[in-house]
Amino acid sequence: MHVSDYELFAVPPRWLLLRLETSDGLVGWGEPIVQGRLETVRAAVEELVDVYLLGEDPLRTEEHWRTMYQGGYFRGGPILMSALAGIDQALWDIKGRHYGAPVHELLGGHVRDRVMVHQWIGGEDPAEIAEEAIKRRNQGYRALKLNATAEFAPLEPPAGVETARKRVATVREAVGDDLHLGIDFHGRVSKPMAMRLVEALEPYEPMFVDQPVLPEHTEKLGSIADRTTVPIATGERFYSRYDFKPLLVDDAVSVLQPDVSHVGGITELRKLMTMAEAFDVAVIPHCPLSPIAFAANLQAVFTSHNAVMQEQDLSLHDPSESTGLAYLEDPDTFTFEDGYVERPTGPGLGIDVDEEYVREQSRLDVNWYNPLWYHDDGRVAEW
């Protein structure tokens, strides 16, 4: 058996899906994507598959990962690691289907029967965000994540901090203390303002503060962590265990949030989780992506004690309203109850992609770029 063919599909809203096929007809799916850089990643996937993978035995997942990573003198970064991630997911999907087992069983077996998921809630007006939070709570979610602020100046007056505080305070008051609330700074806050904002939000006991500063200023995370009881999280813009290593050694974070479609796939995510466990650091994988990436995350999560929760943006509570779950032959594949998702038991990633629907959606124009925000004086702001 060898890898014989592949196809890439750009589909709404902003996803790139990889279909990998073997000589005996097995098909595996993966999601290699950097949102807003879809065509760039497409080229990287084509190069990696054409140069390293066609004609090779798909079951040698570790060897292929190392060859595609180490085979190039220049390595790492968002484009190459995201391309590698989608290929790795598809190879694991094929491997699981070959052996008739879910990937998590091939990784050592499951350590839990279900995992909590969190849902993102948006909006700008505090009352509207609180209303959305109540709605999600009533739909069964036990954990929510919201943005702390929109664009945020490098030096904000007290009113800017107060606006963010009021947003979080209103939501906490609306849903009570039984729900987890993750607060995402999204890298929008400067180093001088990050500590002030964390201190303002501390009374509302966030589950974590995510990306309090940009990855370019990682050295600041330790000092923020030392001055607050709020768990500090980061990770969606880190691309390998080597990027995460300094955070663990410096005791700078309490929660890692790697993305299986950016961090080199299931192979690297599993290793990163094990590395984090040695430092007593929790893992909550980032995943605002399709059910393929979500399923790939779950395979690693169910093998890891310290993977305590999983992000999703698929409206798991009601598959009939979910645009993302429509890409599956059975939108009810993921069993959601009481804020948790049950362990998948199907072979490979545990999902069956509706290939006809994927091909239909790929005929649409998919050309998404993240919005450009500006400060009042015309300077580009962090989105």
TrEMBL record:
Domain of life: Archaea
InterPro entries linked: DgoD-like, Enolase-like_C_sf, Enolase-like_N, Enolase_C-like, Galactonate_deHydtase, Mandel_Rmase/mucon_lact_enz_CS, Mandelate_racemase_C, Mandelate_racemase_N_dom
Protein name in the entry: Galactonate dehydratase
Transmembrane intervals: none
A matching Pfam family: MR_MLE_N
Chain ranges of the Mandelate racemase/muconate lactonizing enzyme C-terminal domain: 126-231
E.C. designation(s): 4.2.1.6
